[in-house]
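Figure S7 source data.
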Amino acid sequence: MNELAGSPQAPGVAQGSAGEAPRPLSRRANLMPRSAIREIMSLAAGRPDVIHLEVGEPDFGTPAHIVDQAFSAVRSGATRYTGNAGRPSLRAAIAARASRSGIPVAPERVIVTVGAIGALFTALMSLIDPGDEVLIPDPGWPNYESIVVLAGGVPVRYALHESAGFLPDPDALLAQVTPRTKAILVNSPGNPTGAVFPTDIVARISAIAASRGVYLISDEIYEDIVFSAARHETFLRHTPQDRLFVISGASKSYAMTGWRLGWLICPREAAAVAEKLQEPIVSCAPAPSQAAAEAALLGPQDAVEDGRRLFERRRDAFVEIIGPTGMMASHPQGAFYGLVKLPNAEPNALEFARRLLLDQGVAVVPGDTFGPSTARMVRLAFTIEDERLREGLRRIARHIAGNAA
Ligand code: PLP
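Tokens for the predicted pyridoxal-5'-phosphate complex:
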């Protein structure tokens, strides 16, 4: 036995300084990009009275009937593992909800996951071999790039132009499809853009998947949060089922972010793989959260409409206060985000966000977090109480006016 091991006189040995240097951490994990939001969040954490416009989750609690039914399910035994793919009754409820699109969805195509992010992870892990390309939106939710990299794939960005209302151009998308392309990832309603795809774009992108043999991964987590004249058009209605993965969940529609409950609707042919993948990652989604989601889907839906209306009112406040500055990059049609452009004199989004926080006490996310095309924008989330939001927006407008050049 090494006498020095565990000896209080030899802390260096206990810390591993003798012998060979430790081998490197995973290259793949190191390659995963870091988010520029971290700096703003840690800066904001140290300051009192910050108006937080950086956090993308509903600011109201889960409806009481959902909480009550989850507790009573736990008392009656919802405390054990479920099957990898989730409780059959929940899979059936999700399938019934998806079938409201007019396209029947069989419960066997539904995999219950830990959050919508678990569904994304499952979809990408089901599809990607090393070197496979996945087309992801620019700007887009940062985890798209991270998961593609973690899965060993190559993220290839496709542009969503401000001038096109951040809608994808299907012809340009088609031109980016190569023999190495495995999947196209789309997100409507979009984060951070608030864009909602009209039917013709959904149909044209679906036609690319149909003709080119690539998969479509459609992140529809904000499906219930659409405003005014806009309508959510699901890819379920347009894409052949054998190449479509739809991501959604309870987080945004039912204010259930912390329950970590999402779902994947996948091709019948991929369901066994997607189900198997739950085992080494999470085994299954938490049983209490599955019970809660079932209560959410089968119970009264007023809270969904109340949330939608609330976010629409706040979107209106965004347009009313930021619109006149001339710096509103998007007129959001859905989700709960808005993009604001930087005045010319500003060096970059991180610096703009830092100054906004230090001078005005408002926290926002630098746009480069979502991709190069929003490098000169910041994203705000409409997820705080109305009056506080209006105050935050007024401060941003003041900051822009003070820095315009
Ligand atoms: N997809 C998008 C576009 C999101 O913005 C989010 C959360 O912010 C998710 C997926 C993940 O949702 P969940 O919290 O259910 O994992």
